[in-house]
Design goal:
The structure holds two protein chains of two kinds.
Chain A lengths: L1 H32 L4 H6 L5 H10 L6 H13 L13 H36 L4 H15 L2 H15 L15 H35 L2 H9 L3 H30 L2 H6 L5 H10 L3 H29 L5
Chain B lengths: L9 H13 L3 H10 L4 H16 L7 E6 L16 H10 L4 E3 L5 E3 L2 E5 L5 E6 L13 H9 L11 H4 L2 E8 L2 E6 L6 H4 L24 E7 L3 E6 L12 E6 L3 H9 L5 E2 L7 H4 L5 E16 L9 H10 L2 H8 L4 E3 L23 H11 L5 E7 L5 H14 L3 E7 L4 H4 L6 E6 L5 H8 L14 H11 L4 H18 L2 E2 L2 E10 L2 E2 L8 H4 L7 E2 L2
Parallel strand pairs in B: 1-10, 1-11, 14-15
Antiparallel strand pairs in B: 2-3, 4-5, 5-7, 6-7, 8-9, 9-10, 11-18, 12-16, 12-17, 12-18, 13-18, 19-20
Helix pairs in contact in B: 1-3, 2-3, 10-12, 16-17
The chains are: A mainly alpha, B alpha+beta.
Chain lengths: 316, 535
């Protein structure tokens, strides 16, 4: 089995590299298709042809874009993410602080939402068609249907503006005590938990119900296994594959897709950094963010696959 | 307000205060209030209230957080590259200019002791003595020469390279005297030096992220796209600053900005959308500050291509724009009706005798008939990039539809708008930020060779007058010439300026000292050193 997992990880790593290269080329072509370049964007209304020419020269943007891209790619191989066009700071430095913020938010959300979602999903499956299950289903469908900016804005209005319990925007730079931390993160984490849990609850409920309907579970029931043992020992390991996949997908969203929550709470995360980068056509920064998202995604799905293999006797 | 006047709002408070500052007498104010329908008895209590607010003396201490509306990783502390309000605010708090503009639009000395000339071509700038940079280096003539000269270097990427190009000679005469020679006489130099981009940096600076200036606050932190912190400059050469510390962030989402102010997380929220005013007005502890500075969104019809090459079409459009409705419904009253030229009522040289063209669909229809455009469809390019352009386009489109002219409003994304549509499409919207002098506006927007000649207006007479007025040191004669040039633009150019847009900043009512400025909202972005906290 060890051999199997090692080869899977190696194969995944190889795929990851190829994917990353393909992704960065795709991102490059998409960026190249956008109107304007960093010089024209930075000059904005003041972009007269001479001014653009001068700035391009000063920023070394006068080489063809593809050469600049290939140079960046060569730099990445040596561990150098390049220098941002927009403000001349090393990309690694720009990303570092933002990535830590995003990982903190994602990590905290995951720690809260995954156990919560799994507990709710599995209990709903066990108590299928009871009042509990129905209420939960209605609540989840309700939450899925409300866009996250609505949840976030309502939360701000209630907790920050009317009740004055929490700050309306997250000042992450001023966290000194655990209390500050809780106040700054409470609303973003709750909003994100609500958003990503719904999907996980639905998926885990469906997966567990499906295995509960299989003949071998019926067999276990006939043998006289208790309800808890039936679900946790017999059904869950087989349902774990689809569940961890749903979890991985939901968590990958936390890495790059939380732009709305970052905007509403003015949270300096990496999604906003990438949007900024796109709006200033900052190629090294866009590329570096894209690569990070790509690897994050692959890491999560690979982990999900490994867990699925480990948990499933038939795959072992 | 607590005195029970129902139709009185915080914005009216601001209006009265602004009037007092302009030097309005009690009689003027009462007249104003009658015009607004406020009863006499109520009027005098309000007057007392506003006068009290104005007379208070600043207190030292305290720290605030203030939020602007734009930020990105491209944030910079290099004054030459400053492009967003956030950059302007930061540059104003860390650096100083040679001159600034006061609330009446006149030049006041800041780092300069005097800026003088006898022929408007060779200017002598004398610097104040005893001014030091944050790193302890004293301010000298070399710093000024370096700061101004770098705008001429294309590699700097200066936003004001065009304006700076007229400065051809710089000479450090002695330690505190600089001589600036212009290519041709320009009486406006003291006002030009008040532009935010002409902040004075230390000689030889290459890394601007340190923010080493002479300004009221010393940079403690600067993270592009996140925040900046400035702490009081203890050896500042002016009175103030009053605050111990100011943190400046930008909350791009307007709702979030308003909420942060309402919940007390920030003390100043810049640029409030009139839509949010209902939420804020009348709230305990929140004050509003309105300034009409000359920012405008204009409809540009190019004179060098169809349909703008027919004068009747342009004249028709000028009569088709319902200016009052645009001010009332699009800007929710936070604007002043415009008269198709760029010099706003906030400017000393504004021509009050030039009346806006009345809304007259019948006349417009007759003119369109003459131009032969009725029954055709004319594309109009609009974008969020130009403030309120889409809403304005809708208003004009509805008026056009009523008389049988189809305006095909094409909404295009803000991203890349200035590069791809502005100045290019036959009929499109533009947005022009306030500029301190008519000469800058004219040479930027209406001279035959102007880089941003939005309607491709060409007039030899206009160019000649512009050059002549530029070198005149006689204010009265200049005022008269500029008045005539405003009429020429309104009658002959293809730019329609329906309204000058007001800017509204909201603050905690504990924050005092915020005044309107002709250079933009937040006191021309320089509020940091003037505001103070009332405990």
């Amino acid at each position: 089995m060890k051999h199997r997992i090692a080869s899977l990880v190696l194969a995944r790593l190889a795929i990851a590299l190829v994917t990353a290269i393909i992704v960065s080329f795709a991102v490059f072509f998409a960026t190249a298709m956008l109107p304007g370049d960093t010089a024209t964007i930075l000059l904005g209304q003041a972009a007269t042809p001479e001014a653009v020419e001068g700035l391009r020269k000063a920023m070394h943007l006068d080489d063809p874009a593809i050469f600049r891209f290939l140079r960046w790619l060569a730099g990445v191989v040596h561990g150098d993410l390049g220098v941002s066009y927009a403000n001349n700071m090393p990309v690694a430095k720009l990303i570092a602080g933002r990535l830590v913020n995003t990982l903190k938010l994602a990590g905290l959300t995951a720690v809260i939402s995954v156990p919560l979602a799994l507990t709710l999903g599995i209990t709903a499956a066990m108590l299928r068609d009871t009042l509990y299950d129905r209420c939960l289903t209605i609540a989840i469908i309700g939450v899925v249907s409300v866009p996250e900016f609505m949840i976030a804005t309502l939360a701000v209005l209630l907790f920050a503006v009317y009740l004055n319990w929490l700050p309306a925007v997250s000042f992450t730079s001023e966290i000194r005590t655990a209390y500050d931390f809780a106040r700054a993160y409470a609303m973003p984490v709750v909003t994100l938990t609500v958003v990503i849990s719904a999907q996980m609850i639905r998926m885990s409920r469906a997966a567990v119900i499906e295995t509960l309907n299989t003949p071998y579970v019926e067999m276990a029931l006939l043998k006289g296994a208790s309800r808890g043992r039936l679900v946790l020992r017999h059904a869950l390991p087989n349902a774990l594959g689809p569940i961890v996949n749903a979890v991985a997908l939901s968590l990958s969203y936390l890495l790059g897709g939380v732009i709305i929550v970052e905007t509403v709470f003015n949270y300096p995360g990496i999604a906003k950094l990438m949007v900024d980068a796109v709006s200033t056509r900052d190629l090294p920064l866009i590329q570096s963010c894209a690569i990070i998202f790509c690897f994050g995604y692959l890491l999560l799905t690979t982990t999900a696959d490994i867990i699925a293999i480990l948990s499933n006797p038939r795959l072992r | 307000m607590s005195n029970g006047i129902t139709n009185w709002t915080a914005s009216d408070d601001g209006l009265i205060e602004a009037a007092i500052r302009r030097g309005a007498s009690r009689r003027d104010l009462l007249k104003m209030m009658f015009a607004n329908g406020v009863a006499l008895a109520a009027g005098s209590t309000i007057l007392g209230h506003a006068e009290r607010a104005f007379a208070a003396t600043p207190k030292k201490g305290g720290s605030i957080k203030a939020a602007g509306w734009s930020t990105s990783t491209a944030d910079t502390l290099d004054p030459a590259k400053a492009s967003f309000s956030t950059d302007y605010v930061r540059c104003c708090s860390f650096y100083n200019r040679l001159t600034t503009l006061d609330k009446n639009g006149a030049a006041q000395m800041e780092l300069a002791e005097s800026v003088e000339s006898t022929d408007a071509q060779t200017w002598t700038v004398k610097l104040k003595k005893g001014v030091t940079f944050h790193d302890g280096k004293p301010l000298t003539a070399d710093d000024v020469v370096f700061s101004l000269k770098r705008h001429l270097d294309k590699a700097t990427g200066s936003k004001v390279a065009k304006i700076a190009a007229q400065m051809t000679g710089f000479k450090a005469v002695d330690k505190t005297t600089v001589e600036i020679t212009l290519a041709s006489p320009n009486a406006d130099l003291p006002m030009i030096l008040a532009l935010h981009h002409f902040m004075i940096v230390a000689d030889g600076t290459t890394d601007f992220s340190k923010g080493n200036g002479t300004g009221a606050f010393v940079r403690e932190a600067f993270e592009p796209g996140v925040r900046s912190i400035g702490v009081r400059n203890k050896s500042y050469f002016k009175d103030g600053p009053y605050l111990d510390q100011i943190e400046f962030i930008a909350i791009t989402e307007e709702n979030a900005r308003v909420n942060a102010l309402l919940s007390g997380d920030i003390q100043l929220a810049a640029s409030i959308n009139p839509r949010s005013l209902r939420l804020i007005e009348g709230k305990e502890g929140i004050a509003l500050s309105k300034s009409t500075t000359g920012n405008y969104t204009d409809l540009n019809i190019r004179l060098d291509m169809a349909p703008g090459n027919k004068k009747d079409f342009i004249d028709g459009m000028k009569h088709l724009v319902n200016r009052e409705q645009i001010v009332k419904s699009v800007l929710r009253g936070f604007g002043v009706v415009g008269n198709d030229q760029p010099v706003s009522p906030a400017n000393f040289f504004h021509n009050p005798d030039l009346k806006p063209k009345p809304f007259d669909p019948d006349k417009a229809k007759a003119l369109f008939q003459k131009a032969g455009v009725l029954g055709t469809s004319i594309p109009v390019v609009a974008s969020e990039a130009a403030n309120s352009a889409i809403e304005m386009a809708m208003v004009i489109q509805a008026s056009a539809a009523a008389i049988g002219l189809t305006l095909d409003v094409q909404r295009v994304p803000s991203d890349g708008y200035w590069d791809n549509y502005w100045l290019k499409a036959p009929v499109h919207f533009g947005n022009i930020n306030p500029r301190p002098t008519p000469d800058i506006l004219f040479s930027l927007l209406y001279a035959s060779e102007a880089p941003w000649n939005e309607s491709r207006y060409k007039s030899e007479r206009f160019d000649k007058m512009m050059m002549e007025a530029r070198g005149l040191l006689d204010q009265a004669k200049r005022k008269q010439m500029y008045a005539e040039m405003q009429v020429m633009i309104a009658e002959e150019a293809g730019t329609i300026v329906p309204a000058y847009i007001s800017n509204i900043d909201a603050t905690s009512s504990k924050l005092k000292g915020l005044e309107p400025s002709p250079l933009g909202g937040m006191m021309g972005y320089a509020f940091a050193e003037y505001v103070w906290l009332d405990s």
